[in-house]
Specification:
Length: 343
């Protein structure tokens, strides 16, 4: 049989396959999330995220050195404060875990890009991402909203305050994840007012109310004490709405966009890639990591191949950058690939 096109011709050898490979995952694409606990001497492994731990600032040196040596360019910081309160005030405390970690990383690894997550859920005693409507707080109480509802506009100022605190500490990028309407504009205005005109915003533009955040909430101790986040994070069913969210964030001044989670939202990544020119990140979240780890630990999946395939899929869908708990391992695997230890 004479076939004009036989796709298998170019799959014959590793070299040919390498030459026609369309998508390449690079170490530069990776961003490593870190959980920074307040206090000293804390190195608390996170049960549902094997290989990840809550670390206090005095314990992060090795992690930072490893990431630098592997040339992972950036970290994304989450703080776990010692004390939480109703308005999440530890979020903008200059002595809090995130500003302290930013300063420590700045001096130890000046070339590392430090991204600070901006949200209140790790800092509020109720675990929601903003202020809650309650009669107890006369300053913000809105009688026209139900008790327990999340107050969008009063939250904006607090998010801006946190973003400014991270910028003052030396963050390279701030990444608002609270899903409040108007948060990018509020943070941009707050940063500019404080003189931080050069600090970019990576907007969690399309963040879905996902079951895949489960392990993160253990890691960040941020499970809501009542209700859930569906009144502010997006409905997983809505792709077109994701584009409206992205349009708003772009118009409000986002410098980079993000879709989160990644694996179950590859279509959203692709749509955003096709319509926007801004750099696009995707967040392979805790549950995606936990699934791969659990299957690997049971011997049900080849971890390296499955993890790299998942990252490549996210890249192929259109992400420029991938926030992933696999950053360090993936960087190591990429070096091994380059050195020819695997095909
Ligand atoms: C909120 C935030 C969350 C994640 C990142 N930022 C959790 C949430 O919305 O409940 C989840 C990340 C992950 O699951 O890895 N500050």
């Amino acid at each position: 049989m004479s076939l004009t096109y036989r796709p298998r011709r170019l799959r014959r050898t590793p070299t040919l396959r390498r030459m026609v490979r369309e998508t390449v995952l690079r170490t530069e694409d990776l961003i490593a999330p870190l959980f920074i606990a307040e206090g000293r001497g804390v190195a608390r492994p996170i049960g549902s995220m094997p290989g990840q731990a809550q670390l206090s600032v005095d314990q992060i040196d090795r992690e930072i050195d490893d990431l630098m040596e592997l040339r992972v360019p950036a970290v994304l910081l989450f703080g776990i404060p010692a004390r939480k309160d109703s308005n999440g005030s530890a979020a903008w405390d200059p002595a809090g875990p995130v500003p302290s970690a930013i300063r420590a990383i700045r001096s130890r690894a000046p070339d590392m890009a430090v991204i600070a997550d901006v949200c209140l859920c790790e800092y509020t005693d109720h675990g929601h991402c903003g202020l809650i409507n309650t009669r107890d707080d006369e300053l913000v109480y809105n009688p026209h909203e139900p008790e327990g509802a999340l107050l969008n506009d009063p939250t904006l100022e607090l998010l801006a305050r946190a973003a400014v605190a991270y910028a003052e500490a030396g963050a390279d990028i701030v990444a608002p994840s609270a899903m409040m309407d108007g948060q990018v504009a509020a943070i941009r205005a707050g940063l500019d007012r404080a003189g931080h005109l050069s600090v970019p915003i990576m907007a969690y533009a399309a963040k879905f109310a996902s079951a895949f955040y489960g392990p993160f909430r253990e890691a960040a101790e941020s499970t809501p004490r009542f209700g859930d986040r569906r009144a502010y994070q997006m409905d997983p069913a809505n792709g077109r709405e994701a584009l409206r969210e992205v349009a708003l964030d772009a118009a409000e001044g986002a410098d980079m966009l993000m879709v989160k989670p990644a694996g179950a939202y590859l279509d959203v990544i692709r749509m955003v890639r096709e319509r926007y020119d801004l750099p696009l990140a995707a967040y392979q979240v805790s549950g995606e990591y936990a699934m791969l780890k659990a299957a690997a630990q049971n011997g049900w999946l080849d971890e390296r191949r499955a993890a790299m395939e998942s990252l490549l899929g996210i890249k192929r869908a259109g992400a420029d950058l991938i926030i992933t708990y696999y950053a360090k391992e993936a960087a190591r695997w990429l070096i091994e690939d380059r050195d020819g230890k695997a095909l």
